[in-house]
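Homework help thread (please don't just give me the answer)

Our assignment gives two proteins as sequence + structure token strings and asks us to describe the second one. The first is just a warm-up. Here they are:
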Amino acid sequence: MSSMMSKLQLHASEKSSLTSTITSLSDQVSSLQSSLTSRLAEIEVLKNRVEVTSRNNSILKLDNAQLIQEVERNNLLITELDEEASSIQGSSIISPHSPQLLKSYTSKISKLETTLHHEREQHNKSLERLEEKEGEGREKENAVIVMGHDLREARRREEGLIKEIEQLKRGETENEVRGEGELERMEAVNRNLNKGFYVREMAMREEIENKENENIHLKQQRDLAVEEMKRVTKEMCELMVAFEGGGLGLEGGEEREGLEVLGEEDEEEDNSV
């Protein structure tokens, strides 16, 4: 019985341990799911930022393309002006208005060069901003990649935890079935033991009753024997008192007379023979 109780306690402790483990794993899964949800929200925000950055980069690329086209047009214009100025300066026939024309061309060229320099600076700044934004976009894309990797790893861990929980649940079910079978077997053994104890108890009670009846019968026989001994002892004492008294008393004289009569009858019988 003690071994059975210890087995029951062991099954109960195993079941309690499995239940606590499953509860802990369920809490971990819930925490992991909440963490995954927050990470997914962060990933969505980063994706939106990346999309905005990509659109901005596209716009900047278009602006830079337009700037490059404008610079190319300005370069062509400068080249044309330079060629025209060279042709004017190298001409052998100079009109009265040639100095003003050269001056105007020179001022136009300087203005165009200033504009070109300014536009080149703006273009370089735009390129720098574009590179910075592209770098930020790459960093965000890398962050998205890393977070996607973390998300896949978290999902893999979640699947592993779910599988472990399922295995623990199956083990708990098997332990419950095994424990219930062991409990039923021990209950059957206990019933058999109780039945055996009951049969033995009834047999012992019957034996005790038989012994008690036998003891009562023996006591009654003993009491009868004691009474008989008392009676016989009393009679012997009375006879001894009568014989020792030498015929004292009526009973002693009558006994002697009886003996004498018996003696005379015996003698008569002998004589007749």
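The one we have to describe:
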Amino acid sequence: MAHAETTAAHVKSEISSTATKAEVAAKSDEHRVDTSVKNDAKRVDTSVKNDAKRVDTSVKNDAKRVNTSVKNDAKRVDTSAKNDAKHATTVVKHDTKHAHASVKSDAKHVDTSAKNDAKRIDTSVKNDAKRVDTSVKNDAKRVDTSVKNDAKRVDTSVKNDVKEDVAKVEGKKAVKAKENLPAGVYPDTKDNWARDAIQAMTQAGYLSGYADNTFKPGAQITREQAAAIYGKVLQHNLNEQELADIVTKESSTSYSDVEADRWSSSAIKLVSAAGVMEGTSKTAFSPSKTMDREQFVASAASLAKKLNLSTPVKTEKVTFKDEASISSAYLADIQYMAQRGIVASGATENFNPKQPVTRAQAATILNRMLNGAGLATPKHTATETKTEPAVKEDVKKADTTEKDASKVNKDAKKDVAKADKTVKADAKKAEKDVKGNKNAAVAQKTEPTRTVRPVRRSTLKALDQKQQAALEDKVFNELNKTYKTEEAFQDYGVMYWRDNQLHVALKTDSDISTVKANLAARGDSTVNNYVVVEPSQYSQTEYDAIDANFRNYYNKNEKAGTILATFPDVENNQLYAVVTTASKETQQGMSKLFGSKVKMTVKR
């Protein structure tokens, strides 16, 4: 216990001593800090004052240096500006002198160059003039030489032609004649099984060959080709009133796949309005689609019914071996044709309804149908075998031709002299054209088409198709004496059927007198009764041109309209046109453009 108290007292004493020491130390440190702070404050104050003095001195020195530098720079700038001004003045004076010298030099050069160019141009123009003059003279000489050579060649050619003609006449019996096919017979049908039918239908005007003089009998028939054939049959065998009734129905016939300017458009509208053919749908005709046998025969039956053909009818029942394969829609029409012997039938006979129809088959069916009713026969027989009198007649003609050879020779010499005179005149004109640098324009003549109006009933006994064809042959034989060919005649007149008479309308009084005399000289009562020769203001070629211009104008201005028919109205010297619509503007334009040349009638 006592020990603990002693220890505690010792500890207190230690603590007290330590506290005293700490207090003394703290006071000593406080004194040192205070002294240090005061000393630092003095040093800072002294340093700041010294720095202020140094800054003030430095600023004053810098100001002096800047002032001195500015003055020096001003002096240098002033000196430089004065030097630059002196240099600029010197340069300007020098450039001015150089410019004056350069301008004078360039002026001299330009003047010299212009004079040289003028001399060269003058020389060039003179040379060109000489060359042109020489060229013109050479061209004139060449033209003159060429024309003279042509005249010589013409003279030689004509003489050679005359010699050849004489040689042909003299050696006619020794030379084998080139094969001359009868009209309506083609190189590719002369040995064809359907030759006679093709010839008959070609002669009747219902069928035609191609541009290469072939018929292509094995080619398949399309719907528009069939329509074209049927259309011709209708036009040739219905009178004008019957055709007019059909035409009035055409306005309601329209197919989306038959354009107004399509070659078959008119025919398709005609056969559709007549009820001979129908579209493949309400809006489509499918003109390029080929026809099979059942389709073609059924449409041909509709044509026969429309024409009301009187053909002998079989009494026995009509059957076919493959009748089950015939479409029910066509069976009745096919039986109708078989009963009249137009298509073959029998228990052992196949009809082949789905087989495509060829041009040869179509010609055969058409020929049987029309010939059976007496509506169409060929103008000439399929083969021509000359009898002994005919041979004698040929010999007689050959002798006559030989006697005429000398006359031909004389005429040829006259022609040569005339040609030589014309050639010389042409040479002078050509030389003048070369000097004047004229251009010659060559006009192209379009090939016209012949239009024959359908027959109308009259008090005269009606001629059948064969008689009409024979009468046309007789008339053309006389016309060819004046116009050489049927095509050439179209430039001078028009031929058409009206009131069961064949009208020949000519443009000149002299032609009318000549043709009348030639026809009267035949002494043919049919010609005298059925042929009318009359005046016409326009030829067929001119009517074709008016027709083409009218169609172009109408189709351009009447987009919704349709041309139902056009034909020459010779009595009134105008083209007669039947259309579905014609606005006031179109009619006024027509009157202004065509005057009295076109008579337009609207039939809705």
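TA reply:
I won't write it for you, but here's a hint about the kind of observation we're looking for: The CA atoms of residues 272 and 278 lie 6 Å apart.
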